[in-house]
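Exercise 7 asks you to align residues with tokens for two separate proteins.
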Amino acid sequence: MKALFMSKNLNYLKFLTKNRRLTATILSLGSCLGAIATTLQPSPAAVIGQDDRITPTYEWLTGAGQQRAAVGLLVIQMADGNFAHCTYTAVGRNIGLTNTHCIYDEQGRPPQQIKAYAARHGGEYLAAANVDIFWTGLDAAPKTTAETASDWAIIRFTTNLGDQTGWFGNYGWSGNINDAGSSVVNQTTNYIGYPSDWPTDAAIQPGQTRSYTPALHAGCQIIDRQFGLLLHNCDTQPGASGSSLYGKVSDTDLRTMGLHRGWLTFSEGNTINTAVPLEKFMPAVEKLRQTGAASDTLVPRL
């Protein structure tokens, strides 16, 4: 497995080195809002080489004394009435981190309702809460590459969900927005999320339900920062939006390194996954931690 991971990483380092010398043309950008419908045909774009995801057990997610239950599923009724899903990470007693495109559609219309399920695993979950207010980095789902670097959102739960699940801390970050992401480049990372294609036909086990079963990719890497984004090679699919790329200091100290939001596909045919750097959303998270996410809190947009 180590050799396979190194091969995957080296291929993308070669690609990125090439694109430092040449101005790459971005052919398309993808976001990871997942459709609930089982007829979804997932794009292979966000799985890089071999699929290294596994299904963590419910017991592993909810074991006492650690924070993995802070990751959960958002079920969203969008403005048009259709249902979709994303991932969130609790980052405070009553707040969670996800993406703007999980909240607003491209016209800037807010959702009709959002339900959060902590450590959802098929029909099981540790706790649930509604979302009653949110703060976002954009006023609509991003339409351009430049906008994707601000594709963050912070949601407020109607209960202190984090008291039941624990919540993630964060890695250190720079006060210079022009240096965004530099503190975590070349570091190993992990994510837990709810991709729409997971479990795949090859991975599914009896009793598991696609889109409601978490995926774990451990030991992937944040390999560069370009276009205001972190570039990473964790295997994702739509539905994984809002997943924290996280580092593990210990079982009781998991820290967000960046916020997964989608992928970029270049004209040469290469695809890379992307994440919003800490510098974009941590000032807002810190402000909301200070106020207890009071509804009149004004948060910075960087």
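Second protein for Exercise 7:
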Amino acid sequence: MKNLKMSIAAVLLLAVSFTNAQEKKKMNHDHGDMKMDHSKMSTMKSDAKTEAILSDYFNLKNALVADDTKKAAQAGSKLVASIKAFDMSSYTKEQQEELADIFEDATEHAEHISESAIDHQREHFKTLSKDITDMVAITGSETTLYEQFCPMYDKGSAWLSTSKEIRNPYYGSRMLKCGKVQKTIQNR
């Protein structure tokens, strides 16, 4: 199972790399008026920052699935850094304001996760998941994501995943497969 997950992760990384290489190649070969499209370039930078945030979020989710408080705390700290490194300059003023609000809240929850016991980490993960979902609604994602839902945790709680397979971060090993995919978020 671990090898399968690593293989899937490797395939996803190759797909993202290939897509980015194809986009760069297309931009470099388009000499129509010899001007570079800077809006595409800044979007590509933001895409990388979005993917960094998502990667840290998924590492955090996986640590909670594995009931690993220490790894969840480390992932929470790393997520704070990724959020702070996000460049919003390629977004509209309204999007920047919304992202600033989302990131302020997400940073607070990630900081709490980095210094708490697992039950408290899971409480903050619920709101953090909503923040990350709201971010993806603005920034998009390079990969297809699945919004999953557990009806049992705190009157119902959602999280994002890169797989349709349910791995519940709110209960971990106690109720690993509790939940369902409630929405598919297609890549751009």
